[in-house]
Amino acid sequence: MTDSLTVQGAFEMLMAGNKRFVAGSPEHPNQDAARRTEVAPGQNPFAVMFGCSDSRLAAEIVFDRGLGDLFVVRTAGHVTGPEVLGSIEYGVSVLGCPLVVVLGHDSCGAVAATRSAVQDGTTASGYVRDVIERVTTSVLAAHAAGRTEEEDFIAEHIRHTVDLLLDRSRTLAEAVAEGRAAVVGLSYRLADGTARLVTAKGIDMKDAAA
Q1: pTM here?
Q2: What is the pLDDT of residues 98-120, one digit of tens each?
Q3: The domain 7-209: what is its CATH number?
């Protein structure tokens, strides 16, 4: 699939699936026994999906895709570490995915917890604290810009994550610079199921939003 799929084509395919999901008319492609047999020898996904671990954010469902379509990486609050970067680089450089998606959402517990920690000076225990610390930069940036609405904090964190991926991964940055891949940030609304474009690198925002 990725051999002939362009960056724009991959994005359009992904968003078409979300429109079907929102409309309540999913096609459930590539979810049958024949597809299972087809992809057993190897995978050829068309997009890397780096999303929040929230149980309401199952990528194959909300984008109406199936087996072998998406290379999915998930962490709470889509926070980034070496394992995440390595997984995304694998999806782009080894599997040849032309599209990387950072998928955030409203009512994100990680962002809410970080906002509380910044405001009250309190924090969680254990490794949850590490998640909060990694989201703090986004929350502080939103505060500095005078943002007050939840959606603004979510969007800022999505933009920060996209920028962080490109800043820390030379492999990904080179793929985008050479036109072999694009990185987009989407914000998902839990109530209506829509995925809204927040930022895009390597693809024209107007084309992506069309």
Answers
A1: 0.94
A2: 999 999 999 999 999 999 999 88
A3: 3.40.1050.10
